[in-house]
Fold this sequence. Notes:
The chain folds into two domains: 7-37, no CATH class; 38-170, Pnp Oxidase, Chain A. The protein is 35% helix and 30% strand. It has six helices and seven strands. A seven-stranded antiparallel beta sheet has the order 2-1-5-6-7-4-3. It is extended and about 85 Å long. The mean pLDDT is 92.
Amino acid sequence: MTRPRPPSDVAFTPSVKAAQERMGSRRAYAAMEAGDGWATTITDDLARFVAAQTSVFLATANLDGQPYIQHRGGPPGFLHVLDERTLGFADLRGNRQYISVGNLADNPRVHLFLIDYAHRRRVKIWGHATVVVDDAALLARLTPAGARAERAIRIAVTAWDANCPQHIPRRLDAADVEAALARRDARIAELEAQLAAARAAR
């Protein structure tokens, strides 16, 4: 019986494996492939990570193999877990170049790159995307409040992998910084009021 190809083969082509062999990492990755390997379903941990993101990078490629990366963003949860094998998001009105949509008409393969700078975590997701224009219920479910969506993008997950935090710079979201500064300022005001009251009581 032929052993099925490991999910990581979506990225580990023969040329990639040859490079790993030359650089000395093939043995470790071969062991990974023989074990549990990369996940092909959306775990609870991944679902929580996805729900917290406000930003994602979507990669597509045209018929010539020319890659294209586009940013997608929204409130936490704008990228939805539809089931254990499917993600979805509303494609909002933008500059109307339609490069991603055009690429998907020729090549449904996509890659999602999610990075959390504050916690130094990144997740890579491979899949096949479908552009959905005739499902009002799905579009309503995926569209953030007050936004204008032109279509829905549904992604069948092929495999995913979470990278180590090495080399990820630590950056904080502006809203988190503002909230922390507001808490600090409130605490300072509270302490100043207590100090003033203590001085007045002397």
